[in-house]
Structure to design on (249 residues):
């Protein structure tokens, strides 16, 4: 476990408490954490929201996009309710108000560890041009700071805003994240969105892609969907996915 706290004395007390109760823990600085302190073997990060100017959200996003995503408990003294909600929406396992007693902190750590140990493991993979095997199913896709939870059909922006999707947009986005950096024809996108391809339907797909592109553009300046002349559309970001163990894509 890694503890990142702007108060070095409080960090030392927390590390000592965790070690006394059988956990392996150490205090690190935000720069060390950003540079990969703890490698991929860290199971839990306790992160003070005030160590970064953005309230630790960029650091939280970096942690949740790791191949081995650790649990994250955010510590907050001055953060607003909105800040705490955004942190939880972005993937934090808990958000604890400072100051808190060592006993409560220990209970929260144990709670996160128990919850994560009951969660069936998933494999986090980078999806390349070859896409997914047919026996694989995406549980969560992450790209350019976005999080797309497939089962709940939840798309969350880099800032933590939930962006609603129509059934057609959901189907197209699922096709895009399953095969990024691969040209998707209008026919394939029509099938993905539940519409027959051909003729006037192709123009309907263009309209639907434009709407999805506009929703993404409202929350980021990056070009995520590129038009390929006489070909279709190309999903540009690198995609990392948590894969469910059963079912087809």
């Amino acid at each position: 476990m890694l503890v990142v706290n702007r108060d070095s004395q409080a960090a030392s007390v927390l590390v000592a408490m965790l070690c006394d109760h059988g956990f392996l823990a150490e205090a690190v600085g935000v720069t060390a954490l950003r540079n990969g302190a703890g490698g991929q073997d860290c199971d839990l990060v306790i992160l003070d929201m005030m160590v970064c100017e953005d309230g630790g959200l960029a650091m939280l996003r970096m942690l949740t996009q790791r191949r081995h995503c650790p649990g994250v408990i955010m510590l907050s003294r001055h953060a607003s309710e909105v800040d705490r909600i955004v942190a939880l929406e972005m993937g934090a396992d808990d958000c604890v108000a400072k100051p808190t007693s060592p006993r409560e902190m220990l209970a929260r750590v144990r709670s996160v560890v128990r919850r994560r140990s009951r969660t069936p493991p998933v494999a986090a993979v980078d999806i390349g041009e070859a896409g997914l095997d047919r026996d694989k199913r995406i549980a969560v896709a992450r790209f350019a700071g976005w999080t797309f939870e497939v089962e709940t059909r939840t798309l969350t922006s880099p800032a933590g805003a939930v962006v609603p999707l129509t059934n057609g947009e959901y189907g197209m986005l699922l096709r895009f994240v399953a095969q990024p950096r691969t040209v998707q024809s209008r026919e394939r996108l029509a099938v993905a969105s539940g519409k027959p391809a051909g003729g006037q339907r192709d123009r309907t797909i263009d309209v639907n892609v434009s709407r999805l592109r506009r929703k993404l553009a409202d929350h980021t300046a990056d070009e995520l969907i590129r038009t390929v002349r006489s070909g279709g559309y190309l999903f540009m970001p690198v995609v990392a996915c948590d894969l469910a163990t059963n079912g087809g894509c």
